[in-house]
Amino acid sequence: LYEGPGTQICCDLKQLTILQNQTKAAKQILGGCPSCSSNFMDIFCRLTCDPNQALQMAVTQVLPVAGKPGEEAVNGIEFFLGEEPFFQFYHSCENVQFSSSQSRALDLLCGQPADTCTP
Hints:
The protein has 119 residues and is an alpha+beta fold. The protein is built from five helices and four strands. Strand 3 and strand 4 form a beta hairpin. Helix 3 packs antiparallel against helix 4 (84-93). The longest helix has 16 residues, at 34-49. The chain is globular, with a radius of gyration of 17 Å. The model has no long low-confidence stretch (mean pLDDT 83).
């Protein structure tokens, strides 16, 4: 994760550790290209720790919490990041090879051939 000066986040250390652990596999796939890996992490950091996070997503579905009357848990959200972060990610990663399988990293992340994925 970026730890440079002037970094403004709204996550505590526990949340940052969880984010770092949950993105390890993807970072291994994208690790051959620093800009690709950085653009990938930028999207997830924005969705997880951005101080303006509330402006970038909306809850679309909640469900009752089992065994806790009156409590609800978020079950669906919609993101509003705009196209730019996704275009940056896609274009910085579209030719990155994942060495252990000799396939493109986006093939693995998209679950289909990268040329059928779009930003």
